[in-house]
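#lab-general

N.A. 3:47 PM
ok so I finally got the sequence cleaned up, no stray characters, all 269 residues accounted for. can someone with queue access submit it? mine expired

B.Y. 3:52 PM
send it over

N.A. 3:53 PM
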Amino acid sequence: MALPLWARDLVDRVQSWGFLYSYYERRVLSQLDSDALPGHVAVLADGNRRWARTNAPDQPLVVGYQAGADKLKEFVGWCAELDIPLVTLWVLSTDNLSRSEEEGIEPLLGVIENLVTDLAAAGRYRVQVVGDPNLLPPAMAGALRAAEAGTADNPGLHVNVAIAYGGRHEVRDAVRSLLASEAAKGNTLDELAGTLEIDHISDHLYTAGQPDPDLIIRTSGEQRMSGFLIWQSAHSEYYFCEALWPDFRKVDFIRALRAYAQRERRYGH
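B.Y. 4:20 PM
back already:
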């Protein structure tokens, strides 16, 4: 059956907008200098709950969590397409775990566990969980360790997923690990105090051995870091986007990369 005239007009308009968007996306992408892309991109995927309240007001907040997780998988794919070697996704803070939730924390934990296992199952990424697994339910912590171990030898994009993560928490754990390491060597606190260097602490962070993030993106209009990678971000560039995370588009990411490429990095000078 033929569509009525108004329906055909609507379809034509939608297709036209889709074409224009694709054209604009390709145009902005063509302006990027591949040599000026960041080697490590970190993202605070903020706004999932607000997105759910606006777009699915009669449904549980887990709808927003799932929409955010789906967008994270898209985002990782975008990074892989651009040959960005390292990405860090912050999906659950230590504050989230202690906050009183209307629905409880369990639905969010289930979405996060599925996100990590899906990324691992893709077979294209090396997945690493950064955070304190002792704060998670044992079964979930075990599933995350299995996903991590199963991708340890994958040569593709390295994906850090920050779960039960807090910046101060990480520095505290790094100092604890450093002290334990020095004690095992028979060194005293006085000896450590006399020889301690910045790199000694860096070597005990959750991200030990990795380059610091070049670009950190935060969505939903918030312009604060909330303790994310506070040690590693000393010289990072920041990009803040008004879009709620589930609404974050590939063109928004390309704009962030373009803004990064146009900046003169001073590394504290």
